[in-house]
Amino acid sequence: MFISEPWIWLYLQPSKIIRAFYQYFSDHDNEHILASITPWLKKHGQTIDQQQFQDLVEWCKNDHQGYIPFTELPLSLQSIADPPVLLFYRGETKLLSETLLAVVGSRKPSPAGRENAQFFCNTLARSGLCLISGMARGIDGIAHQVCLDLSLPTIAVLGCGLNHCYPQGHKAMFESIAETGLLLSEYQPDESVKAWQFPRRNRIISGLSEGLLVIEAAMKSGSLVSAKLAAEQGRQVFAVPGDIHNSVVKGCHYLIREGAQLVTEPQEILSAIAWLRSNDIDPEVIEQEQCLLTDQEKTLLDIIDRTPRHVEQLISRSSMQMSLVLDLLFSLELKGRIISSADGYFKPRSR
After folding, report:
1. What is the full DSSP assignment across 69-94?
2. Global pTM?
3. Mean per-residue pLDDT for 154-176?
4. Contact indicator for 37, 7 with CB cutoff of 8 Å
5. Mean pLDDT along residues 265-278
6. Is residue 84 a part of any domain in this protein?
């Protein structure tokens, strides 16, 4: 069986085959996956719709559009619990190497919410962050439009295929982002809008980002879904407080109670992002010092992994007593293996 474009072939497989693929290759590096994906598909893959396959291949041949396979996705997205096999794109894929900040919020923001979104997004975009959102009405659209007005790139992840613009009122925005920024979707280009696709879209927005900023969110909203996913993925969640009598702000207050960082100035986000990307050390130094760690320190360091973890997460995941975890964290920090933030988060120095 000859397989051209193995990533599209895998993409069209049933979900059980895709799960088996991830399970089989979970301990392999990208180079091994690239060398092995075609023989693996020949052994495990099922028959696919050839016309559907060919349509996707032809779509990807057009200028400034195509697909990004799993092995070329940013590591932050590869490492989430349910990564996409590939992402279809229109625009500039090089933007995925920028420092990305997700911005989400109410589809019907209050005047104060609109003002806050413009204030934060203007400063954050001018400061070098690339803003990513879902191109929905309200806060999402404001974040994208601020970037476009500043002639700065922005990334939109859609909950439908890239041959569709949703909502229709954002058609001009859609075309501008395709021309100067980046449109992404894990759905086939002709896939129409379906409600269930948007929550799945949100895991990609948070998975690509260094952190997620929530500006106005009701208690039952997609923004809280995004924030929950971001927290599960180890991303820093930022929330803007507001009027306690405004129902569209209650979700932000809930997030703050649950551990999100309260922010009232863009600089607070910039400082946190700078901390997340700081303090690289030589991998050889890490290897030399590995023998100096106790088994318990190694266990805790493995839990921290690549993303910042709050001390409460570390206690829960390690099943160790709080006093022991605090002692181990202090020891690891003294040994230069982790760094801490003022709000109780710990991260490894870059490997």
Report:
1. EGGGS-HHHHTSSS--SEEEEEE-GG
2. 0.80
3. 97
4. yes
5. 82
6. no
